[in-house]
Structures are given as C-alpha cells and as structure tokens.
Design brief:
Structural class: alpha/beta
Helix content: 25-40%
Distance between the termini: 94 Å
CATH superfamily of the largest domain: Nucleotide-binding domain of ferredoxin-NADP reductase (FNR) module
CATH class of the largest domain: Alpha Beta
Length: 369
C-alpha cells in the first residue's frame, strides 16, 4: 500500500510531463487551424472532355445563346407604380367594338387617360395593368382585380404618351342553363367615356421586346391575345410611332393569328397596312377555324399553320436573334407544343429540350390565361 504522501508526490512529479504534452497538442492544432482553408480546399483533378453522343432515335438539340443584354436592360422596366391599396383612377377616353358584323361574342378596345397620374403611370410594350371593377361580390367584398395585357405602345394610341389601351373580350359561359357574364370583362365592355376606373400596375417582364433592332419576332396569338402583339407591331411599323422612337426595327416579324371567323379578326385594317408597307419585314398568317380546313379536313387552328410552316419557322428559331411570343387562352398551349414538337422533328431537332433552352436564353415568352 502506498502512503498518502507517496501518492501525492508521484502525482506532482508527472505534472511537468502533462503540461509539456498539452503544450505540444495546443501548438499542433494551432498550426492546423492556420492552414485549415488550404488543407480542406478540394484538389482539382484534370478532367478529360467527354464526347457527347446522341442516343439512337434522339433528335439533336440546337445550341441556344442566352440574351444577357436584354435581361440586363429589363431591370429598368417600371413595375407596380400603383398597387391595389392605392390604385390610380383613370378616365375612360373611348370604348368601341373591334368586331365586324357576324362575329362571335363581344370584344372592345378601351383607352384610359393617364396624364393626371402622379407618379406617372408609365409602361412599356408587353406589360399588363390591373383593373379593379366597381361594386362588390356576393359576400359584400370589393371585386378582385384582373390583369389585362396592354394593347398600346408606351406612346399610347394618340402618340402623346399619356394613355393606355386594352383589348377586352367579354367572358360568357353557361352554368345550370344560365348564361354567366364575367365580372370585370363585362364591367369594362360596358363603361363609357368619362367614367373613372381604378387601375394598378404596370406589371410583367415576361413579354417584353428585345432591345436589338435586328431581332426577329415570331408571334402566336388567339383572340385578345393579339393585345401585346398589336403593341409590338405598332412600335415596329406605325410611321408616327417610328418617328418618336430611337428604335428602328430592322428584323423580321411573323404573326400567326387564330380566330373563329373572319369577322373576329382584330385590328385587321392596321395589320394589312403594315403588311403592304413592310413586305420584307412582316409576315401575317391566319388560322380561321370555322372557315378554313387543315390538311386532314378538320378545322384550321393556329397549330396547323405552325406545322405548315415548320421548315421556315425553325430556320428562324435556330437564329439566336429570334424571339417567340405566345399569348391567348391557356388551352392553346398543348396544341402549340404538339405542333412545335412535330415541326422540330422535321428539322431534326428535339423540341422538349430546345424549348427550355430558349426559355433560359430569354427567347421564349408565354402569357396565357
């Protein structure tokens, strides 16, 4: 047995050794800590390029270059100058029908005065504004706002830069044997010059035109989906508009327009004038479902026209200067997608992979409702 004094003495004798070991450990880890970033940084191994091979029966994918210049410019686009809690009350300047005799439904062109807005409600082509219809819903609450694509250029229909215009179709549908009218669309089609309307916005950067003057613009529209296209085409080809712009369109514009009847074609006189005055820069293809037939003997829809023009259309799409705009009822998307898939196959391309590339590059623009 050891005495208490012997144990204590032995323990004290080891203290210098313990201190020395602790000191060594502390120095070691201090050194490791100072070198930690270098020690933990992954070492880069040389990677050999791997040759990309297409799988059998897989169409090649065209290379798409991102349009970084356009995306940077869009950062300056005005957004939400007026919000639902603080809307601007614009005055109706005009409200008239766009349809000819024998047309189906009701479609109006409506213009609002913006000159008294403070801050000024400015916008650019391809944006939308919100409309807050007067009155209350069944629960006694104010009606929710609806968004509408702007149909005018930033300079307005009068070219003075203080108006905004919409192209509105009255929504109607049957429910339990009763015809139901859309709240906001009916409100807009019924308003009269001098009426005040609550407006919000502008909103949206998805449908903006590229800044490049030599860009090519392919437009696919049905019904009131013509609204943003009308703004683009006015900016490109309207003589007075061109005089006011520092932007002189030099590319090619191609409009595919779908309508049930000829009487339902919107802004037709203007479009025919642009076609006559700019034959080298503008192409206009119509699909009139109740008056024309496709190659299978069925009704002619916009997707049928896309298939007919597959080769020429995809020659344009393969050009990195080409932008594609799709606007109209949401139901048009599947048909267009199917048509683009078939059209791409005829060019040996894979649309399911090409479309997201176009989207990422800022060249595929969709606004459906």
């Amino acid at each position: 047995m050891y005495s208490q004094s012997t144990v204590i003495a032995g323990g004290l004798a080891h203290i210098p050794v313990i201190i020395g070991v602790f000191s060594f450990i502390q120095k070691f880890f201090s050194k490791r800590a100072s070198n930690f970033p270098q020690d933990t940084e992954p070492k880069k191994s040389p990677v050999k390029p791997v040759e990309q091979k297409s799988a059998p029966n897989t169409a090649p994918v065209a290379k798409v270059t991102p349009n970084t210049v356009t995306k940077k410019k869009h950062a300056d686009v005005p957004v939400n100058i007026y919000r639902p809690k603080t809307p601007y009350e614009g005055t109706v300047i005009e409200n008239y029908s766009l349809l000819k005799e024998g047309a189906i439904g009701r479609v109006n062109h409506i213009t609002f005065d913006l000159k008294d807005s403070d801050p000024f409600l400015n916008y650019v082509e391809g944006q939308s504004i919100g409309i807050m219809p007067a009155g209350e819903d069944a629960n006694g609450k104010p009606h929710k706002l609806r968004l509408y694509s702007i149909a005018s250029t930033r300079h307005g229909d009068d070219f003075n830069g203080n108006t905004v215009s919409l192209c509105v179709r009255q929504l109607q549908y049957e429910k339990d044997g009763e015809t139901i009218n859309g709240v906001c669309s009916t409100y807009l089609c019924d308003i009269k010059p001098g009426d005040k309307v609550k407006i919000t916005g502008p909103v949206g950067k998805e449908m903006l035109l590229p800044e490049e003057e030599d860009a090519n613009i392919v437009m696919l529209a049905t019904g009131t989906g013509i609204a943003p296209m009308r703004a683009y085409l006015r900016r490109m080809f309207e003589p007075t508009e061109k005089e006011k712009n520092k932007w002189n369109f030099k590319g090619k514009a191609w409009l595919f327009m779908g309508a049930p009847k000829s009487a339902n074609l919107l802004y037709e006189e203007d479009l025919q004038r642009y076609l006559t005055d700019n034959p080298e820069n503008f192409k206009y293809t119509k699909a009139i479902s109740r008056e024309q037939q496709n190659t299978k003997g069925g009704r002619m829809y916009i997707q049928d026209r896309v298939l007919e023009s597959a080769n020429e259309l995809f020659n344009m799409i393969e050009d990195e200067k080409t932008h594609i705009y799709l606007c109209g009822l949401k139901g048009m998307e599947p048909g267009i997608d199917e048509a683009m898939t078939k059209a791409a196959e005829e060019k040996g391309l894979n649309w399911s992979e090409l479309r997201p590339q176009l989207k990422k590059a800022g060249r595929w623009h969709v606004e459906t409702y």
